[in-house]
Amino acid sequence: MRSAPEKNPRGTSPRRARGAKSGIRWSQNWSTVRHSADSDSGRCLGVGSFCSMLRKRNLLTTLLIVLPWALLLTVWHQYPATRYLILLRKETEANATAKARFNGTSPLREEGLPSCSWQQASGVSPKVIQNYVYSRPPPWSDTLPTIFVITPTYTRPVQKAELTRLANTFLHVQNLHWVVVEDSPRRTNLVSNLLEKAGLIFTHLNVESPQSLKMNGSRIPSHKPRGTLQRNLGLHWLRDSFNNTQPPEGVVYFADDDNTYSLELFEEMRYTRRVSVWPVAFAGGLRYESPIVSPAGKVVGWKVVFDPNRPFAIDMAGFAVSIRLILERPQATFKLEGIKGGYQESSLLKDLVTMDGLEPKAANCTKVLVWHTRTERPMLGNEGKHGFSDLRMEV
Amino acid sequence: MKVKLKNVFVIYFLVSVIGLMYALLQLGQPCDCSQHLRSASDLMHGKDKKISQLLSEVKRLQARGKDSELEGQALPVIYAITPTYARLVQKAELVRISQTFLHVKNFHWIVVEDSPVKTQLVSELLAQSGLRFTHLHTETPKEHKLKESDPNWLKPRGVEQRNLALQWLRENRELSEEGVVYFADDDNTYSLRLFDEIRSTKRVSVWPVGLVGGLRFERPLVEKGRVVGFYTAWKPNRPFPMDMAGFAIALQLLLANREAQFDMLAERGYLESSLLQSLVSIEELEPRADNCTKVLVWHTRSEKPKMKQEELLQKQGLGSDPSIEV
Fold it and tell me: What is B76-298's CATH number, 3.30.210.10, 3.90.550.10, 3.40.470.10, 3.40.50.720?
C-alpha cells in the first residue's frame, strides 16, 4: 500500500513546514505549477493547476488517483461470493425452510374439476396435494435426490395384488428407483412381468432364504427375522453399483410390500442427510410408535411399549438412510445370527449412526405418514387338496 | 482553512484507504458458507422440482388439448362407489386406493360413510386427495349392524350406503351423460388396466376377481364372446354368482331403472344378484379382461391390527395421543 507512506509528506509538510527535503520539494513544485497555470489560462485556479499537474506529474498522480479504486475493484471482482453472500443472507432469512414445496389446491366443489392454483408453501407444515398427473411416472429430474426403495417379497397368493398396489403408489413419486428382491431361487415371471409393465425404474434381484428362515404357510413366526437376506442383497447391489462412480444424492428406504405409504412420506425422506425417522402406525401393538423429540428438535427416546430398551426401537418402515452413509460404512448390514424379534433394525442402525445423529421428520414426529398394515391370508378352502381353479391363470 | 487542491487530494486518499481497509477486513471475517450454500442448493432443488412439475403440467394440458381434438367426445366418467366405516385401518385403506384412483382419467369417487355425520378424517382425506369426489353418509340401522364379535359375513354390509349412492346418482345425473358405475370396496386391490376395461361398458360388464369365494379366482365362463355360466365353487346356483368387484353397470341403465337397488334382506351371497336381476340377464352380460381370462382385481382384506399394548396403556390412562390421526 503505497498511498499511506506517501500521505505523510504531503499531508504534514505544507502545514508544519518541517523543512524535510521532500516536503520542500513538493511545496516548491506546487507553487511553480500554480504559477505556470496562471500564465497558461485565465480560468479558476484549481482547474488550471489540475490540468497542469496532469501534464507535469502525469504518471505518478494518475497512479495515485486510480490505485485505491483499482485495488478495490479487483478485490471485489475476485470475491463475488462476498456480494452474493450478503444478498443471500437476506433471502434465506425470509424463507425459513430450505425446501420449497408445492401447495396445489383443489376446491371442495363436488362437481367441478380440480383447479390449478399453485402456491409456494411457507415453512412449517408443507402439504403435498397432488393434482392429477397423466404422465406416469413423473419425469426424472437430474437435481432431485433419488429414493431407492428396497422391497423384499416372496411368493404367496396375495403377492401380485400387493405389488400392484405398491406400484400404483410409487408411480406418483418422482425420482424413485424400486429395488425388488425376491425370496426365490430364480426370478419369477410374475414379478418380472409386473415390473416391466408398471413403467417404474426398477432393479429385480433374488436370493433364496435357507429353509430354517423361510416363511411357512402354516406358521407365521413373528419373532424370526424375515427378509433379512433380501434386504442385505439390496444393500450389496447399491454398494456395487456406486463403487467407482460418483454416487447420486439420495436416500434408501426399506418398504415392505404390505404396508401403506402416503405420498407425503417420500418428500419428507428425500432430503435426509444421515438417518431420518418418523412415526409408524400399528407397530408394536400400539396405534402408532414414534420417536420422542426434544423441543430442540433432537431424538431423545422412543415412545414404545414393546421392549423400549432397544438401541433403536423403530420399525423397518420408520426410517431412511442416506446413500452417502450406506457407501461410507460398507460393513453395515442387517445381522442374521442371534437377533431377537424387534432388534433387526437396530442391528443395521447401530453401525450407521448414533441417537443424536437422527433427523426427526413428519412435523417433529407428530404426523403419521406410514401404516404397518398386514393383509389377511385369503381363505382358499374351496381349492381343496388338488386345486380347483385353472393354474394357468395368474393371480 | 483554505480549500487547497492538495488538501482535497489528502482527504481523497484518506477516504480511499479507509474504504479499502474496510473491504479487506470484511473479507477476513470467517463465514459459514456451507449452510448458505446448502440452503441455496436446497432452494435450487425446490425450484427445479417446481420447474419439472410445471413442465409435466404443460405436457398434460397439451395432451388434453390434443385428446379433445382427436376424440369427438370426452371419455365416459367412471363413478366408483365406496362404502366405508370407521375403524383403525380406515385411513390407510382410503389413502391406498386414492393413490390408485389418481391414475384414472375422468374419475368420480363417491364415498359413503356408515356414520350419522361426515367425519373429519374422511373429509380432509378427500379434500387432499386431488380427486373429483362426492362425500355422502348414512348410518346403518342398529338391527342390521354387525357387532364386534360377529363374523364379517353374518350380515350384509354397506347396503344402505350403496343404495344412497345410487339415489344420489339418479338425482344428480341425466340420461344424456355417459358414465359407468363400479362398486369399489375400500380394502380391495385394483390394477390400472381394470378401469380401461370398465370404461367401455354398454350395459353390464363382468370379469374375474382374484382371491374370492374360497378360490384363487372366480370368473364368468365365456364362449364365442358371450357369458354362458360362472366358474365358482361357493353357492353356484345364485342367479349372478359374482363378487361386488366383478361387474360394472352403465349409468344410463341405472337411471332408466329407477327402482333397482340392493336388497337389505337378501340371503348371504345374494346381494349382487338382488341388484342385477332387475337390470340384465346373463346373455346380455359383456365379458371383459380378454374374455375373462385375466385377473385385474383382487378381493384382499386387511388384518385387524393388534392393539394389545395400546389396550394395556389405555387401562392405565396412558393411551397414545388421540389428537394424532391414524
Answer: 3.90.550.10
